[in-house]
């Protein structure tokens, strides 16, 4: 009788299986490395969104209203707030920017309005926010991103400034 399977064929089969195993393991490692890199990129994008959105929003709001408004730092129910007072149609209005329940918020109200802190429009998720005048015309705004890092923003104020309330 003639053997149909020789030992050379067994070695060829083992070599093919070993080569496939090495290929599969390498492909798996590449997928793991790619997933880790994707997660890192997504985290960086989220961080950049929080930091840049908060800093740009506050900077733009101050610059929009810096020529004709009163800007002050105040406290609303124990929460630091940036207050931008304007007069429209002979009525006094105030825009408050403050931190409440994990969000940087904005609230635009008339001077006589009664409101609660949760009435503000959510802007961006942050961990903390504070505002203070660091000099006569220099406003220091510090917010803490969800990563726990504090980011100060300094803005020169050109309009009139009310004393801190």
Content of β-strand: 35-45%
Rounded to the nearest angstrom, the radius of gyration is 30 Å
The rough form would be described as rod-shaped
Distance between the termini: 105 Å
Biggest beta-sheet profile: 5 strands, antiparallel
What is the number of helical segments per DSSP (H or I, 4+ residues)? Answer: 1
Order of helices and strands: HEEEEEEEE
User: What is the strand tally?
Assistant: 8
In the predicted model, the low-confidence regions spanning at least 5 consecutive residues are: none
Structural class: alpha+beta
Short description:
The chain is α+β, with helices and mostly antiparallel strands.
What does this structure look like?
By secondary structure, the chain is an alpha+beta fold. It has a domain at 51-156. The chain has one helix at 7-65, and strands at 70-76, 79-88, 91-100, 103-110, 121-125, 128-133, 138-144, 150-156. Strands 1-2-3-4-5 form a five-stranded antiparallel beta sheet, with helices on one face. A three-stranded antiparallel beta sheet has the order 6-7-8, with helices on one face. A hairpin with a 2-residue loop joins β3 and β4. It is rod-shaped and about 100 Å long. The termini are far apart. The mean pLDDT is 84.
């Amino acid at each position: 009788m003639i053997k149909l399977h020789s030992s050379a064929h067994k070695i060829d089969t083992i070599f093919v299986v070993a080569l496939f195993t090495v290929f599969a393991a390498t492909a798996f490692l590449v997928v793991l490395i790619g997933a880790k890199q994707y997660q890192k990129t997504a985290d960086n994008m989220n961080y950049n969104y929080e930091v840049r959105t908060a800093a740009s929003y506050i900077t733009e709001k101050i610059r929009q209203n810096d020529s004709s408004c009163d800007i002050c730092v105040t406290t609303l129910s124990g929460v630091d707030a940036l207050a931008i007072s304007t007069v429209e149609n002979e009525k006094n209005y105030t825009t408050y920017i403050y931190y409440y329940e994990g969000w940087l918020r904005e609230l635009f109200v008339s001077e006589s309005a009664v409101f609660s802190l949760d009435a503000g429009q959510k802007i961006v998720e942050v961990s903390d926010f504070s505002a203070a005048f660091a000099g006569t015309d220099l406003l220091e705004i510090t917010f803490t991103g969800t990563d726990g890092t504090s980011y100060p923003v300094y803005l020169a104020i050109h309009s009139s400034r009310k004393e801190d309330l």
